[in-house]
Amino acid sequence: MLNFTKIKIISIYFIFFLLTSFAILNFFSNEESLFNKKVNLGLDLQGGSYLLLEIDTKPLIKERLQDKVIQIKKYLKNNDFKFDSFEINENSINFNLKDDVENRFQKLFFSTKNNNINQYIDQYRTHQFDLLIENNNYTIYFSKYGLLTLNNAAVKQSIEIVRRRIDDLGTKEPTIIQRGEKRIVVELPGLKDPSRIKNLLGKTAQLNFRLVTDEENDFGSEKMISENGEEVIVNKKIIMSGENLVDAQPRLDNQSNKPMVSFTLDRYGAQKFGKVTTNNVGKRLAIVLDNKIISAPVIREAITGGSGTISGNFTFQDVTDLALLLRSGALPTPINIVEERTVGPDLGKDSIISGAISLVIGFLLVVLYMFYKYRLFGLIANVSLISNLSMLIGVLTILEATLTLPGIAGIILTVGMAVDANVLIFERIKEELKTEKSVIHAFDMGYSRAKITVLDANLTTLLATVILFFFGSGPVKGFAVTLGIGIVTTLFSAYFIARHLTSFYVLRNKESIKL
Q1: Rounded to an integer, what distance in angstroms lies between the CA atom of residue 401 and that of residue 116?
Q2: How does DSSP assign 119-158, residue by residue?
Q3: How many Cβ atoms are within 10 Å of 228's Cβ, its own excluded?
Q4: What is the SS3 assignment for 338?
Q5: Average pLDDT in the 67-86 region?
Q6: What value does the mean pLDDT take over residues 21-47?
Q7: Which has the closest alpha carbon to 185: 321, 48, 324, 322?
Q8: For strand 183-189 and strand 48-55, is the pairing parallel, antiparallel, or unpaired?
Q9: Do residues 510 and 2 lie in contact, with contact meaning Cβ atoms separated by under 8 Å?
C-alpha cells in the first residue's frame, strides 16, 4: 500500500493540478481566463428574481375535447350507434344515443385493447376519460388521472419552452423546476428587474396566418382588433400555424430602415404558404399572435421561397422579443405569474459572508484539531484536506454548477467527512503499531484494513446523495451535488494524495516514527 510507481505518482498529481487549475479560474475575470468557466452563485447568494408560474389548462382541456369530437363521431358511425345533439362544454362532451345501447357502448368505451377514443393509461391502470349516462344522455369528461397526465405533459412542455425563452435572453444559470401539478419555479440569479422576462413568459405565442375578408358571419369569420386599434374581419380558417416555423430573426428593412422579423418555414409550411399567396395576390393576410393581429399586410406577389417577413409599428426591442417567442415555440397553455420575489443585493452579500465565515471557521477548527492530535501526520491530513477542497471546487467549475447555501453546507460536511477518513486510517495505524515491529508494515496494514471501513462509510453516504439528487427539489439537489462530488474527492485525497505523502515520510524516517 505504501509503494507507488512513477506512473501512478504522475497520474495522481496530474489529476490534482488539473482540477486545481480549474478552481483557480474563479479568481479571474472571463476575459483574463483561458476557459470561460466559473462556479455560479445561486439566487440566495447573489440575489436576483424568483417567479412562481402556474399553467392554466382550461383552454387546453377544451381544445382536446374539440379534437376528440371528430374521433367520437367517426367511432359511433363505425359501430352502428345512432346519435344526435352533440354539445361541447368547458369540461365535457354531451350527446344522445338512441335505443338501449348503454352496456354495449360502455364495454367498447372502456376496453383496454385497440381503443382509439379512450386511451388506457398503464401507469395508473385507468382510462383517459370517464363516462356518465343519464336517460340516454352520455357525458364524456377527463378522468382524474387523465387530467393529471394532461397537466404533467403541459407542465413539462411549458418548462422546456420557458427555458428556451430565458436562455435566448442570455440569463446565466436559471433554475427552472416543476412544483406540484401545475406550477413552475423560475429562479434568475443576478437579475434585479424581471419585467422583460415576465412579459415574454406571459405570452402564449400561438401564431397563425389567416386571410382578411370583407364579411363577418358567425360560422366562417370573426372580428379582431389589430395592434394599432383597427377592426379587421378575418377568416376563421387557419392557413398556417407557428408550428411550421423553422427560424425567426430580427432584421432591419433595407428600404424603410424599420425593424422587422424575418422567418423561415419548413418544407410543408413553404408549400402551403406558397399556394395560399399565389391564389390570393392583392388580398390582405392577417398575422395573428395570441388572438391579436400584429400585422395585416397586402399579398403583393406569391411567396414561394419558404421565407417571409413580419413588419409593423415595431421597435427593435419588439421585433427581438417577437423573434425570440417564435423561435421558442408556443406554450401549450397560458401561464400566470402567481408569486414574484426579488432578493436584493444586500441579502445576497450577507448570505455570501455568512456562508464563507461558516466554511472558514469549520475548516480552521478541523485543521487545528488534526494538527494537535496527530502532529506531522495531522499536517499531512490538512494538506490532503486543502487539496480535497480545491479539487471539489475544480469539479464544480468544470460543471459550471450553481452554488447555493445548501451547497455550501454540503462542502462543510465534506470537510468533516474528509477528516473522518483520515482519523479512521490513523487510529487503525496506531492499533497496528502496538503489535507490529516493522513501522512500514504497520502503516501498510493500517491503510489496507481501514480501507473497507472508509469505503463503506463514504459509499453509503454517496448512495444517500444520489437518492437526494433524483428525488429532491432545487436546494436539496444543490446539497447533494456538492456532497456527492466531495465524497469522491475525499476518497481520492485520502487514499492517493495523503497516502503518498505519508509513504514518502515514513520510508525516509522509519526509525523515529511516532503517531
Answers
A1: 46
A2: -EETTTTEESEEEEEETTEEEEEE-HHHHHHHHHHHHHHH
A3: 11
A4: strand
A5: 85
A6: 76
A7: 48
A8: antiparallel
A9: no
Nearest to 188 by CA among 180, 179, 198: 198
SS (H, E, C) 39-52: CEECHHHHCEEEEE
- Where does residue 431 rank: exposed (0-12), middle (13-18), buried (19+ CB within 10 A)? middle
- ∠ at Cα 21 (3, 502), nearest 5°? 25
Mean pLDDT lowest among 52-61, 190-199, 239-248: 190-199
What's residue 5's pLDDT? 84
- pTM of the entire predicted model: 0.69
Total residue count of the chain as it appears in this document: 515
Asked if residues 319 and 259 have their Cβ atoms less than 8 Å apart, the reply is yes
DSSP-assigned letters across all residues of 168-209: HTT-SS-EEEEETTTEEEEEEET-S--HHHHHHHT----EEE
* All cell numbers assigned to 372: 494537535
pLDDT digits (tens, 9 = 90+) for 383-442: 988 999 999 999 999 988 888 888 888 988 888 888 888 888 888 888 888 887 787 888
Q: Domains for the chain: give ranges and CATH numbers.
A: 6-47+344-508 (1.20.1640.10), 48-204+331-343 (3.30.70.3400), 207-330 (3.30.1360.200)
- What are the phi and psi torsion angles at 36 (to 5°)? -85, 65
Please give the grid coordinates belonging to residue 295.
Answer: 400585422
DSSP state of 462: H
- Predicted pLDDT at 34: 57
Torsion, Cα 160 164 165 170, to 10 degrees, reads 140
What is the rounded distance in angstroms from the CA atom of residue 472 to the CA atom of residue 488? 20
Extract the C-alpha cell encoding 434.
502496538
Alpha carbon distance 198, 405 (integer Å): 26
What strands, in cross-sheet order, belong to the sheet with 285-289? 240-241, 207-211, 285-289, 292-295
Distance of alpha carbon 185 from alpha carbon 167, whole angstroms = 15
Q: Worst-scoring range by mean pLDDT, 75-89, 217-231, 250-264, 449-463?
A: 217-231
Interstrand relation of 40-41 and 402-403 (parallel, antiparallel or unpaired): parallel
Q: Please state, in angstroms and as integers, the Cα–Cα distance from residue 187 to each residue in 171, 340, 409, 496, following that order.
A: 10, 10, 20, 39
Minimum mean pLDDT range among 26-30, 47-51, 178-182, 481-485: 26-30
Mean pLDDT for the stretch of residues 51-65: 90
Considering only 35-39, 80-84, 119-123, 263-267, which range has the smallest mean pLDDT?
A: 35-39
Place of cell 411549458: 158
Is the distance from CB of 42 to CB of 177 less than 8 angstroms?
Answer: no
Lowest mean pLDDT among 1-5, 158-162, 289-293: 1-5
- HSE at residue 14, side-chain half, CA atoms within 13 A, is 6
What is residue 33's predicted lDDT score, i.e. its pLDDT?
55
Please give the span between the terminal C-alpha atoms of the chain, in angstroms, as a whole number.
18
